[in-house]
């Protein structure tokens, strides 16, 4: 009031008063951003990003000529005096040592995208209710928590307000979450600083940062993720001086933020790839880092808005010995995050404001054969088979270890070599577009491709190698990485032209070590014996066929029979099947006679009509009588007598085969009743 009365005594005082009131109003409206500008002969001052709030105030002061003639020095001094008496209001995006955070209160980031406070999972059914300190998306109707401080030690003292849980900032620059005097969670500053007042600020990126008075970052929540990866958040692959690598750890259940079964993070053994684990068992593995994904771009087109573009990057910080992956989204894109679901999938989720739901444009593992080791040792998942489902295949030079199981979709036994390796002389075949297998050894020194190949070739136990030039940075003075494998190749894939793909050089038997082609010497060395064996086998088969054919022919040749111990007679033997076929299986319609010895049948054998005498089983004639008859008929061969064409004596059958006489026998002519009168005269 003293300053106001003094200013009214003169025209200059009135100008100063108006300037004071004008700036006081602006300072009050902006609270945390005091912008004062008194400009001679200027009617307005520009306040970026606050024009909508400032416009009514500027309109209240209608400029006139007197105001246009402000005295800038006097105005500035007066405003500084006024500001020194104004009460400063605590910001709502930070935690101060004198102002702890209690249930029901929140800290909201400067841009309003995130909030820090206490929450109880909406679908939790535990009694008493459990309270967690966390960060969630602000302004989204569905509670979506992205970070939890005390996920293993929830607060349960929620009924007694005097001992309710609180988050405090101590004088030693630490955040402490306590529940009725019991410490549930606390931070440990990662930078040694002298004890001094610090501030915890919730940034609009969702990162809770603990800063010292001079602006040094003492601790930040982005270095201690739970199950979510936010834009600009680093997922460390190699931690450098830090004791342990970062991992995303899933919730135990939708209503239980405590650590679940699944985790996702950098491979502690190689620092070149990222794993998804179930406990200690790997579920999914990314391709080893080849320098890809540096400012690479992935787009997911949504149904009713423009594409969400995700920029992934892998950064190698040489000075700190640290490698990490991070991502950002395009301007105007939906709120997007990576989250490790409690069911074990790493998902990309984008908030669809029109449907008020989280869309899932991508997740991993995508296919069944994406899962770790699904195709078995020395098998690989061919992801280039789209649009069909990717399938398991064997690497070049390999075949299914168990063919029947492989055909039925069980690939656990994997593949085996078609030809065993012979030693260091075997060459390598290049397989481009591959996801290299797990279980490699990293050759740390900076090497060229030729040196990497020599590293593997000189080691007879080395079965494959891969090389990449890490264009995004250097590691330990090198710009390349050389990977070598010994033993079985597990969790291999084929990615095609993907920037994540690599060329795998696989050692195969019989390849020329210098050119990676089949050796001509090997072709001659192994081809000639195979050809000789093939000719020998074919010759044996041919001889066996000739022998068999000769036996068949011999069955129809004449058999020599000795008569009276001196003479030999030859007559053909005929197979019983041939005789049966010639007489229509001894059909009654083919029978032309019958006697005490048996029946006589007419037939055709070899184009010639025959008469077959079949000895009846009831006949008293035995083998000796049958043989004697054969010999007798054979001796009586004459041009005017019926000729014996052959015989058959198989098993119990005894058959005589004669030529057929169409004019019947001589007795039919001599004793025919119709011709008797000719003989009698």
Automatic annotation (TrEMBL):
This is non-specific serine/threonine protein kinase. Residues 365-404 form the EGF-like domain. Its main location: membrane. Residues 586-681 form the Protein kinase domain. It is found in: Membrane. SMART domains: B_lectin, PAN_AP. Residues 424-509 form the Apple domain. CDD domains: B_lectin, PAN_AP_plant. Residues 92-223 form the Bulb-type lectin domain. It catalyses: L-threonyl-[protein] + ATP = O-phospho-L-threonyl-[protein] + ADP + H(+); L-seryl-[protein] + ATP = O-phospho-L-seryl-[protein] + ADP + H(+). It comes from Brachypodium distachyon. Disulfide bonds join 375-392. ATP binds at residue 613. InterPro entries: Bulb-type_lectin_dom (IPR001480), Bulb-type_lectin_dom_sf (IPR036426), EGF (IPR000742), Kinase-like_dom_sf (IPR011009), Pan_app (IPR003609), Prot_kinase_dom (IPR000719), Protein_kinase_ATP_BS (IPR017441), S_locus_glycoprot_dom (IPR000858). It is a single-pass type I membrane protein. GO terms for biological process: recognition of pollen; response to other organism. Pfam families: B_lectin, PAN_2, PK_Tyr_Ser-Thr, S_locus_glycop. The keyword Nucleotide-binding applies. One of its GO terms (molecular function) is ATP binding. PROSITE patterns: BULB_LECTIN, EGF_3, PAN, PROTEIN_KINASE_ATP, PROTEIN_KINASE_DOM. GO terms for cellular component: membrane. Keywords: ATP-binding, Disulfide bond, EGF-like domain, Glycoprotein, Kinase, Membrane, Nucleotide-binding, Receptor, Serine/threonine-protein kinase, Signal, Transferase, Transmembrane, Transmembrane helix. The chain crosses the membrane at residues 526-548. It comes from the Eukaryota. Its EC number is 2.7.11.1. PANTHER family: BULB-TYPE LECTIN DOMAIN-CONTAINING PROTEIN, OS09G0551150 PROTEIN.
